[in-house]
Amino acid sequence: MAEKDTIFSGKIKQKGIFNFKDFYAFAYDWLVGQGYNVTEKVYSEEVTGDSKKIEIKWEAKRKISDYFRFVIKIDWMIIELKNIEIQREGKKIKTNSGQPELKINGILEKDYENKWEDAAFWKFLRGIYDRYIIKSRIDDYEDKIKDEVEEFIAQCKSYLVVEGKK
After folding, report:
1. SS3 per residue for the chain
2. What is the CATH number for 114?
3. Which of 97, 68, 102 is nearest to 83 (CA)?
4. Beta-strand relationship, 16-18 and 37-48
5. What are phi and psi of 113, to 5 degrees?
6. What residue numbers bound the domain in which 37 lies?
């Protein structure tokens, strides 16, 4: 079985005005632009009066080599999502208000194709391979996935701040 190490966990939480559809597209496009294949595992909406509660779970994967793969898991929870109308530069614009919260985990998967799992001897060799032969490469990849998740969080936060101030 592939070895999965959670390298970084982060969170975005904000309350205010934003366009949900545009924010969703922005986050998706950013991940795809970095080479990730994004899969939506869960999408559910719960309507209560004039507001919605939306839960989304994404899994974004990017192959680094035959042995390594980056995985970013994103759990969305948007509560009190409402359709509103605001004035911007003298024009009425339809947008949303609510509380988006995203929990993001950056994971480094090793041997994701299970090539070293056939026998106990191969598992033993994988342990030696990971600990002694490619230790510096693993450290570099851990730094890289951490940096990518931090950049994703920074981009999303910037988007929400700019969108809320327009």
Report:
1. CCEEEEEEEEEEECCEEECHHHHHHHHHHHHHHCCCEEEEEEEEEEEECCEEEEEEEEEEEEECCCCEEEEEEEEEEEEEEEEEEEEECCEEEEEEEEEEEEEEEEEEEECCCCCCCCCHHHHHHHHHHHHHHCHHHHHHHHHHHHHHHHHHHHHHHHHHHHHHHC
2. 3.40.198
3. 97
4. unpaired
5. -95, 5
6. 3-165
How many Å apart are CA 120 and CA 107, to the nearest integer?
Answer: 25
**Contact predicate 106/148, CB 8 Å:** yes
d(CA 92, CA 97): 15
Structurally, the chain folds into a number of domains equal to 1
Is the entire prediction scored with pTM above 0.85? Answer: yes
Would you give per-residue pLDDT tens digits along the chain (166 residues)? 678 889 999 999 999 999 999 999 999 999 999 999 999 999 999 999 899 999 999 999 999 998 899 999 999 999 999 999 888 788 888 899 999 999 999 999 988 887 777 777 767 777 777 777 888 998 999 999 999 999 999 999 999 887 655 4
